[in-house]
Design brief:
Blueprint lengths: L13 E2 L20 E6 L5 H19 L2 E5 L4 H9 L5 E3 L2 H11 L2 E6 L6 E6 L14 E4 L5 H14 L4 E4 L3 H9 L5 E5 H5 L3 H4 L2 E6 L7 E4 L5 H12 L5 H9 L5 E3 L6 H4 L12
Parallel strand pairs: 1-3, 2-3, 2-4, 7-8, 7-9
Antiparallel strand pairs: 4-11, 5-11, 5-12, 6-9, 6-10
Keywords: Signal
Organism: Chromobacterium subtsugae
Protein name: Phosphate/phosphite/phosphonate ABC transporter substrate-binding protein
Length: 285
């Protein structure tokens, strides 16, 4: 199904479910009339938080490649998945399971990934919680972002099941919501990942502690839709993988909590495929 496109414009559009953003985030990324590309970011955190962190990087990429990159996210991960399934995003940053699924069902092609970083899922509890071992989660309720949040939801549940630990699950919509809900004592524990954990304010991290971590896996990819012009794809790849070469580029990576990037290949995510996780893509159910 062809995704609906907004009118062409020379401005960066931050499509954030009716959120009004600071004017600084609406700066132009390219000359008027530059090709518009829709850049989708998985909503692991609030839309406003994501826009503030990713806006400068998208502006830099747009200027470097003479493109008008439109930042887009979704109110929750299931909605984001449905949009990816429809091919709504030209470029997308999403989790490894998303890539494996939507490479097959929607044709997304790997573009880049972090070079020397592995994705690790976490289970966190309040710092004053009496729980000291994951086996003590038996019968407790675990806050998770969404059913198909790979390292924050899928892996912890699979590992707990393999240990014979039975938990109840409540999906709260985002990683930020998980950490806040556990901090507030609404749930005994919650699932997240190393990157979003490191992005939490000190007030949140100081109130929580990491109880358990998953084995490491290939991290989130940047991917492009099938049919994206090769000149655009190559410019984006070149710019992304050379960000670490300048102080400005390094600062942009640090703003989104990413380490230096490298070109990605589809087989980089074979470790995810070997897990044999069954997932039915939205729109195919």
């Amino acid at each position: 199904m062809k995704a609906l496109r907004p009118p062409r414009s020379g401005k960066t559009h931050l499509i954030l479910a009716n959120l009004l953003l600071p004017a600084a985030l609406l700066a132009s990324t390219a000359n008027a009339g530059a090709p518009i590309l829709h850049f989708g970011i998985v909503p692991q955190q609030s839309a406003l938080h994501l826009a503030r962190n990713w806006g400068s990087l998208l502006q830099y990429l747009g200027k470097s490649c003479t493109l008008d990159l439109q930042f887009e996210t979704a109110p929750d991960i299931p909605t984001f998945e449905r949009r990816v399934a429809k091919g709504q995003y030209d470029i997308v940053y999403f989790n490894p399971l998303h890539y494996v699924v939507f490479h097959d069902s929607a044709g997304y092609q790997a573009l880049a990934r972090e070079k020397d970083t592995r994705l690790v899922g976490l289970i966190v509890v309040r710092k004053d919680s009496p729980i000291q071992n994951v086996r003590q989660l038996e019968g407790k309720t675990l806050a998770l972002p969404a059913p198909e949040s790979f390292a924050a939801s899928v892996l912890p549940q699979a590992e707990l099941e393999s240990m014979g630990v039975h938990v109840n699950v409540s999906y709260v919509g985002s990683h930020d919501s998980v950490y806040l809900a556990v901090r507030q004592g609404l749930y005994s524990a919650g699932g997240g990942i190393n990157r979003t954990w490191s992005q939490q304010p000190d007030a949140v991290r100081n109130a929580l502690r990491i109880l358990w971590q998953t084995p490491p896996h290939t991290p989130h990819p940047f991917a492009t839709r099938p049919g994206l012009p090769s000149t655009q794809r190559q410019c984006l790849l070149r710019t992304l993988t050379h960000l670490q070469d300048t102080p400005e580029g390094l600062a942009l990576l640090q703003q989104v909590q990413l380490k230096p990037l490298t070109a990605a290949r589809d087989e980089d995510w074979d470790d995810i495929r070997r897990l044999g996780i069954h997932y039915q893509a939205p729109g195919e159910q």
